[in-house]
Write a structure and sequence with these properties.
With about 325 residues, the chain is α+β, with helices and mostly antiparallel strands. It has helices spanning about 15-25, 35-45, 95-110, 125-135, 165-170, 185-190, 195-210, 220-235, 280-290, 305-315; strands spanning about 5-10, 50-55, 60-70, 75-85, 115-120, 135-140, 155-160, 180-185, 235-245, 245-255, 260-270, 295-305, 320, 325-330. It starts with 5 loop residues before the first strand and ends in a 7-residue tail after the last strand.
Length: about 325
Amino acid sequence: MKTRQITLRPGADADRESVTRIFDMANPSWATSAAHWRQLAAARTEPANGIVIVAEDHGRMVGAARANEALEGLLPQPGTFSARVAVDPGAAGDGVGSVLWRAASDWISEQSPTQINSWCDRDDERTIAIAAHWAFERRNESLETPEDLDPDQPWAWNYELRLDSRSHANTEDVPALPPNVTVSPLGEVMDDADLAASLHEGYEECRADVPAWEPYKPRRRSDFLKNQHDRLQHGGLGLVAHRNRDVVAATFAERAAFVPMIHNDFTMVRRNARGQRLALGLKRQLIRDAASCGLERITTEVRTDNGPMLAINARLGFRRIAMRQLTRTPAIAIG
């Protein structure tokens, strides 16, 4: 174990970016998108009853803790608190997390809590073990496997693909797109008024077809185009397939703010072009482009009733990931 001189201090507003970066580095599968980060930076207000604790080693931030009174919507849940700790991966195993958990627990204890909640990646065995040490248990309502779901109700799972040599192997035998289909980067399409209009038309058609929690509300073309320009400005990606100047398919991805990854938030194929493996081919190209840019992972979200996209993700090697919801009764003594 490396000898460290860990000091703790309350977090300040100036630490917001560094603290978010620490949490995203520790949990890259759930990282903050660049677009969302800019929204938070512009409008975020901290919980009225909460604290951020920063751990430093010789002045360099190596970990952070967040604790606050939990919210249900925008209303506090009196007596219920949320707490999370994140450690820079380079400082893992050096006791930083234990120091932060102790400080966060001490602060919460002063608030007379009735319940403390947290979460972690269900496949993160190290964090699960640490949570168990601090007397956290899996909440009964934690949804982590298909067996946890109501079979009559759809659910949206998160998926992840790590961009290593294996991910390239998974795409080697994926059929190429038809020769009469041209694939262009989103930026080039946005510079072509006719293709941009066709992309918006296709997007509206496909959004209406995708299983969703609420009926889709059409977007004005100007709003759609602004959203795509913002995506590109924030480092996002997009690929658009078109034939004879008509868009037939596309896939879009948001860039994470602080870690080398993207979130593939929508893939579409026009009704008159389905059954030609266009979505599979586009996502295959997205994977290769992301890897060539030095990105390390792609995440996405798919509902359980979207069979075609579930099959595509499985074909490309995406694995299902989930959060484990944790809870702890404050009266339990911690050794």
